[in-house]
Amino acid sequence: MSEKAKYPKPAIRDLTRGSIYRQLISLAMPLMAVSFIQMTYNMVDIAWLGRLGSKSVAAVGTVSMLMWMMNSFALLSKVSAEVSIGQSIGAKRMDRAIMYASHTTTIAIALGVFFGLLFFIFPKVPISFFKLDADVTHEAINYLQIISFGVPVAFLVLNFSGIYIGTGRSDIPFYFNAIGLILNILLDPLFIFGLGFFPAMGSQGAALATVLSQLVVLTLFVKHLRNKKGLMLGRFSFWVKPRRFYTVNILKLGIPVAAMNVYFAIINMNLTRIAPVYGGHLGVTSQTTGGQIEGITWNTSQGFGTALGSFVAQNFAARKMHRARHAYRFTLLTMGTLGLLVTAAFMLFGSEIFSVFIPEKKAYIAGGEYLYIMGFSQLLMMIELTTQGMFNGMGKTTPPAIVSILFNTLRLPLAIILAKSMGVNGIWWAISISTIIKGLVSVTWFYFVQRKY
Question: For the chain, which residues make up each domain, given as ranges?
């Protein structure tokens, strides 16, 4: 019996045939919903903590920057799973898809445990980097130590999401993450403000609610993957001895994406460090909370970009590049329309939008200025993320990484120069200008690459 014959057909979606637009939308909508669910986790925390004051929001926002960097490392396994599994299915090699899934999970476990222990044992080291006020620093350290228990969980949840996305089953991560979000919404006010025999825990309560909710999501994933009639047909392993072929391919796909996003996070952490110099703790609040609000466009683009990557991976391996091109054009048109709408909302109603989350007047005025400046770059940001999904699906993860690293580096010197004459708003302009440049360069680079196919 051949190696391929050992593996019966699982519950996957073949994206190499059928309506391009229907398949892309059905794949993108759950992914987009998952992205919004992840954003809503943070926004729910901020909305409740905003009632405690802007300093609590600044403390949690600072830790969220560290979690952003941590999640960037998790992309090594997640994106590798999406692309390698998608291309294996497109090439009709389910045996390889299962091996890739097992290998990415092993990597996710190792990285998650490492970062979880690092943040729990040495919480003061990363928090001290931001040079916050003493009371904000203390609150951030306490929050980080609790959230560190959920770091291995977050790595595995992201990895498992990548596995399902690679098979075209983006609906499963949506269902599981939606359950986690509902639980988080219920637990947040209970743990933050206390009720009955539950003590008021403040920001530490928000951390505990997040960890417990993510643990439930992980449990649902594990149970589904262990089902012998499920996605991986019961042959999936959570820990394997690494094989050179699979490990090397995973690293080739994942390292550029992880490096790009880790570097992006580090740059923004440095900007967060500069912000208090010119805007006090309100500068940190504007950037961290404003960044969450900006997730409206970011997460929508990520959802469609990830869907596009999964779609392209299967069609690229099946030598149906014409379907990939049609999907790319459709996604660009969709994201462009939404980008213009969000730009108008940010520029016309920035302060009003910000005040929904933090009712403190000084905070929402400063936040409104942040959103106004970010409004100029929303369209190009969405174009960049869409093009990144196209590159990833083709297995070419290096070009987006080069663009991102190169022009995100520009942010720091540009922020320092502009902040000296414009104050904290100069930092926001540096972010917006570099985002515009990245979008233009990304789409131009892809234009020349796709001509080969």
Answer: 19-448
Q: Residue 27: which of 12, 37, 10 has the closest Cα?
A: 12
Q: Please report, to the nearest 10 degrees, the dihedral formed by the alpha carbons of residues 378, 383, 387, 389 taken in order.
A: 50
Q: Is 233 helix (H, G, I), strand (E, B) or coil?
A: coil
Identify residue 345 by its one-letter amino acid code.
A
Collapsing DSSP states into helix, strand and coil, what is residue 198? strand
Tell which residue, 248, 297, 280, 423, has the closest CA to residue 35: 297
How far, in Å, CA of 228 to CA of 230, rounded? 6
Alpha helices in 318-423 (DSSP H): 321-355, 361-375, 378-393, 398-409, 411-422
Dist. CA 453–CA 449, nearest whole Å: 8
Rounded-to-integer distance, Cα 220 and Cα 232, Å: 15
First-to-last C-alpha distance (Å) of the chain? 36
| Torsion sign over Cα 292, 33, 378, 15 | positive
Residue 195 forms beta bridges with which residues? 198
CB 207 within 8 A of CB 146: yes
- In which element (H, E) is residue 159 found? helix 151-166
pTM of this structure: 0.69
Q: What sign does the CA torsion over 119, 302, 287, 364 have?
A: negative
226 phi, psi to nearest 5 deg: -80, -10
Q: Is 60 left (phi over 0), alpha (psi -120 to 50) or beta?
A: alpha
Give the Cα separation of 36 and 26 in Å (integer): 16
For residue 423, give the 3-state DSSP assignment. coil
Residue 185 and residue 142 in contact, taking contact as beta carbons nearer than 8 Å: no
Other CB atoms closer than 10 Å to residue 94's CB: what's the count?
23
Cβ atoms 27, 15 nearer than 8 A:
yes
pLDDT in tens for each of the 453 residues of the chain? 344 444 444 456 667 777 777 887 887 777 777 777 766 766 676 667 666 666 777 777 778 778 878 888 888 888 888 888 878 877 777 778 888 888 899 999 999 999 999 989 988 888 887 777 777 788 888 888 888 898 999 999 999 988 888 887 878 888 898 898 889 888 878 888 877 677 777 778 888 888 999 999 999 998 888 776 656 545 667 788 888 888 888 888 888 888 888 887 888 777 777 776 666 667 767 776 777 788 777 778 877 888 888 788 878 878 888 888 888 888 888 888 888 898 999 989 888 888 877 777 877 888 888 899 989 999 999 899 889 888 988 888 788 888 988 898 888 899 889 988 888 888 889 989 999 999 999 999 998 887 776
Residues in the chain, how many?
453
